[in-house]
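S.,

Sequence below, as promised.
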Amino acid sequence: MRFGPIAVLLFFICIGPLAAQDRQQVVRIPGPGGSTLVATVMRPPGEARSPLVVINHGSAADGSQRAKMERPRYTALSSFFLSRGYVVALPLRRGYGESGANWAEGYGSCDLPDYFNAGLQGAADIQATIDFMRTQPYVAPDRTIVVGQSAGGWATVALSSRNPSGVSGMISFAGGRGGHQQLKGGGTGNCAPRSLVEAAAKYGATARVPMLWIYAENDSFFEPSLAKQMAGAYDAAGGKATYRPVGAFGRDGHSLAGSGNGSSVWSPLVENFLAGLR
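The prediction came back faster than expected:
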């Protein structure tokens, strides 16, 4: 069942404080290696089992900010999926904010980054979230969607290489790693763009889950030609990514997924992608 955004808003206004707590809560999820992942979970109206969407955050370019990260909300994305009857889970991965534990997504030196394994570490946290949420009586065991932005988008691409059961499709907003780093020659840029392309190809070699990749023209982390190369390498290796570049958004298109006014840009693309899934 699909609910309009106004209906969802009125529902949360009318049901009262206690019931609202039941519909939006903080949960603790068993993560890899004995870790605990802290997540915000939001439920749509009704008591029937609903499909799940897991929305995954990015990573601060300044590593000192990871431990200070607050639980992500992605208000526009969350509202979009809630209004379509999805349970929304927004986990903090290992090494971020309340989840604590050791940061698992490091890629090593900027000279020789291991983006491939870094992405798989993030993917393990997403899989742990999916596995836990499917044990909940209000979550359907199939039709799951995975969404990620920046490092979370990259982890989503990495997860696609594992073809997780019950996942219908995945969406990556500005996915990648290694952006906004201090380079040896001075200035700021991406550590090793070619390594991103190569890692994308390795993921694509085993990935068969339909994906939607969205990048803005003025993304300061991953410029259009790099985004296109990553998507091309992923598909050429066997992946099933639909690459959708969009025009410039705000001051920095990297913020598209998290912006309150970005939905007018991405919602038609996401709606069309979801409609094409089995």
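Helices lie at 5-14, 16-23, 75-82, 115-133, 151-160, 193-204, 224-236, 263-275.

Coffee later?
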